[in-house]
């Protein structure tokens, strides 16, 4: 026969431990309450944004890549995006702000742009099921991260997604930093295949993807410095019309920051 006092003690202990360290399944089914998004112009929003930026800058993964300065260069995509275009961009404009993408992503790319590691914060207002980042949003993030690697392989620095395959391995909890790794599989002519994955800061695999990107035949018409500022690319040259054999055209350095 179980002693009532002992049973009570076990129950209280289990409840206390479960409250302090809730099982992942419980956290997904019953996410902690969260306040609505802050007014982007409010002092509170500015404080939260500053805190997230500070946390980003001191993450171990960020420090480790900064120590590899001879192998990787650092960039902040979207920072150089012209305002008149930024406001109509999904990830650079519409989804910016506290509770969504509070700060621009930080990207470390190999010098030859064959690999990249993106670190970004996903807020609580980017969910499908409350507390879990929407799968469609993760597909968008992967598409952009993989596209950056692919586009920088193309002579004209312009490319479009032809195919994107995604496998979701685990729920991505909101209000945390995630890591998106992308690497070139093959680049041939106007086509490039890139693979990537989303991880948490502990390295847990959340999503895997593989995509095919194509440089349009009309790339010479739309090739311009703007894509370089969007991508935060190190390269400062494009080919105006590779099919016609045009020479490389220099891009202003400020567009490649």
UniProtKB/TrEMBL annotation:
Residue ranges constituting the Thioesterase domain according to the UniProt record: 131-205
A molecular function GO annotation: hydrolase activity
Keywords: Hydrolase
Record Gene3D superfamilies: Hotdog Thioesterase
Xref: NCBIfam families: unchar_dom_1
Protein name, as recorded: Thioesterase domain-containing protein
Organism: Botryobasidium botryosum (strain FD-172 SS1)
């Amino acid at each position: 026969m179980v002693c009532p006092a002992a049973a009570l003690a076990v129950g209280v202990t289990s409840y206390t431990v479960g409250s302090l360290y809730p099982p992942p399944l419980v956290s997904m089914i019953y996410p902690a309450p969260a306040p609505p998004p802050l007014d982007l112009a409010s002092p509170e929003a500015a404080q939260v944004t500053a805190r997230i930026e500070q946390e980003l800058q001191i993450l171990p993964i960020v420090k480790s890549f900064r120590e590899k300065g001879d192998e990787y260069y650092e960039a902040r995509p979207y920072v150089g995006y012209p305002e008149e275009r930024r406001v109509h961009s999904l990830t650079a404009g519409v989804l910016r702000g506290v509770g969504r993408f509070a700060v621009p992503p930080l990207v470390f790319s190999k010098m030859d742009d064959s690999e990249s590691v993106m670190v970004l914060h996903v807020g609580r207002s980017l969910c499908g099921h409350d507390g879990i980042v929407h799968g469609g949003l993760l597909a968008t993030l992967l598409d952009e991260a993989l596209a950056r690697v692919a586009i920088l392989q193309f002579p004209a620095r312009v490319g479009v997604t032809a195919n994107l395959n995604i496998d979701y391995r685990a729920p991505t909890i909101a209000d945390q930093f995630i890591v998106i790794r992308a690497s070139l599989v093959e680049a041939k002519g106007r086509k490039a295949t890139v693979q990537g994955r989303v991880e948490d800061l502990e390295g847990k695999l959340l999503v895997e993807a593989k995509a095919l990107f194509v440089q349009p035949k009309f790339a010479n018409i739309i090739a311009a410095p703007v894509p370089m500022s969007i991508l935060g690319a190190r390269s400062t040259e494009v080919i105006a019309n590779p099919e016609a054999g045009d020479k490389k055209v220099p891009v202003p350095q400020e567009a490649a920051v």
